[in-house]
Amino acid sequence: MGWECQTPNCNFKKVPAHTLIPAVSLREPFWPLTASYTLSRDTHVPFIKLNVSFAHNYRINQFMIPGIDGFITHLIANKTVLEEPGGPDDMFEAIQRNDIGLRRRSLGSGVTKGDSYTRHFLVNYGMPYKFIAATASSSFEGAASPITDTRSRLNWAAKFLLAQEQGKSVEEIAEEWKSKEFNEVLALGYFENQRINYHDDGEYGLGPTIATLSLGAPGTMRIRMKAKHHHGVSSAGIYDNDAPMPGCAAYEARLAMHPELQALQQSDSKAYKIRLKQIPKELKLKRSGQARDAITMTLGHGDIMVMHGAELQKYYEHSVDHTGKLRFALTCRYIDPESLEPQDKPTYEVKPDMGEYDGAKLGVEAMGTE
DNA sequence: CTAAACCAGAGACCTTGTCG
DNA sequence: CGACAAGGTCTCTGGTTTAG
Fold first, then answer.
1. Of the options 3.30.950.30, 2.170.150.20, 2.60.120.590, 3.90.1150.10, the CATH number for the domain spanning A3-226+291-368
2. How far apart are CA A214 and CA A283, in angstroms?
3. Which of A55, A246, A292, A321 could be joined to A66 by an S-S link, Cβ 3.0–4.6 Å?
4. pLDDT digits over A194-214, tens only?
5. Is position A199 annotated in a ligand binding site?
6. A116: which nucleotide lies closest, measuring CA to C1'?
7. Residue ranges of region Disordered (predicted)?
8. Backbone angles phi and psi of A314, in degrees to 5
């Protein structure tokens, strides 16, 4: 891989030598990694609730956002997870050795003449993600092992967390999960100083659960309320009529007037529209600026992050930036095949996850036989 | 000690097809 | 008709560091 000139009839290519970054070089001297539970570097604002638990070699930070039905969970991996055969260490090196198809892709809706390209490198496997050009999607059949292994690993993590949250057994959850299991893996590659700006993953046709496996240098994921919902007013000066969320500007006042406003929407749409323009002035809501980051997570090598809940994507947005030289993020989603336009449908069959990864089995023999 | 230099963060602007 | 767009670049601003 390298550079390819896009000018017609120009065959210029520049392919620099690749230097493998070994997984052991990811170990941080002042951040010791052992078979015990790894420490957390996550922070959050007071209105967010944090539950910490420990299971299957992960420190589990579960963040609950008041008013939002769902959760954000960060599973922090320890040394046992990283060094497991086929685990994060092996995956990190395998992705560097094999061309899994990571490329800069054209942004469909460019605002400039000619194409504009993403800063990071990406490739999609399984059900096509509509944000990405259809040509950037490949079948799971014949995909490199880190891709299919990630799908299986994240299916396990999602089932485990949903079971924990709903107080059900993993077997019970597995039954419900089967029909809506992750059917897409989006691989992103980041070099130094490449970041992905604030956005949400709430597009039409996506399941409520999204999971990401981090490989390589740590990434910093920030979660904040969207400005419109935080300020309560759009950039055009129209009041945001969605239910106010705890932690937003003028929360009490907005909460108090919400039922009345909804009733007005039903009874008198004209008066309602006028009211939407009045409220921002009455409450002195400001349009500019952004909400503070509610949660900041340091996603280390081998860590898994799971977001669950459609409301989370509606009210909150997230960004990721990177401190190190090389990081891969492998994200799984469920994409409803019916949500795809005919031309976006895959030309291959997206088969069920054949992997049977079970993180609960890891390290059990070592501990059990002592 | 003062002022220039530096830096990070945020906002404005760029500019165009699509969507409701 | 206005809002929107996993974006990029420039400029301004306020705070901190450094040079003289």
1. 2.60.120.590
2. 42
3. A246
4. 777 777 777 777 888 999 999
5. yes
6. C7
7. 343-370
8. -75, -45
